[in-house]
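User: Hi! I'm working on a homework problem where we have to compare a predicted structure to a textbook description. Could you give me the structure for the chain below?
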Amino acid sequence: MTKAQASRAMASVGRRLRTLRMDVRPRPTQAAVGAALGKSQDLVSLMEKGGQLPTDQQLMTMLDLYGVDESIRLDLLAEIREARASQAAWWDEYLADLPRSLVRLIELEDPASKVSIATGALIPWPFQIHQYMQAVDEFHERENGVEKTAVQHTVRRRRQDIFFRPGRPAVLDALCSEAAIRAQVGGPAVMRSQLDHIAEAMQRPNITLRIIPFSAGAAAATQLNLNVIDYPTPGDPGVATMDTGTGVAILEDPKEVRARRRRFDYLAGRALTPHDSVELIKTLSKDL
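Assistant: Happy to help. Predicted structure tokens:
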């Protein structure tokens, strides 16, 4: 299926969703449907215009609200899955080697307009160079095998592309403890390359890393690994994710997302400015 055909398939799904909503009596507004989904009216509008496909869960919620019978449900679900399959995703070729939670995270990251990240003693993943990844994941390589770990490193590097893509790069607002830039992960040469890479990336207007200094006390000692993902749709509450040690917890409840935003803001309030952060990074690189 060509891109043009995929676009038409999405438009067809959107028209069907709009028709189903319009046929309900009393007719629910887009705002009411958005509220049922825990999302905004704008997202429902975008779906009905063919700009975005609903997830299976979103579709079932909408069809429950519209009182749609089983035969129409199955037909529409099949059409949506066909349209979704037409949208080739770069990560499809790696599915066999990735945990489902990571695939879901990548699906959430890809359309992001902004990603806010707070980590403890490790460099945030969007900045990690290959040698740093290898040093960090030495233990996992022993557990998972060389080939599977190499695939995960390739995927991590490709995830970074959302901040460098032409036209609409996502904004990156990252925080990490001073420990992350002082620990010589992989040795002095690797760490110098890693720090230089961060300084270079921070020259881009959409990329920021702020260091939480040791003087910030408990804030600098956090072991948090937190992402908050925002989207271009106005009113969308976004999504938060947490590294659980054995996988990724994905939090879509708006209350949970707000709680993680508050945690991020607390840490950001104790971080150095972007300018002071990059100067510290450059100084440490020279010392290496």
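For your comparison, note the following. The CA atoms of residues 74 and 152 lie 35 Å apart. The mean pLDDT is 89. Good luck with the assignment!
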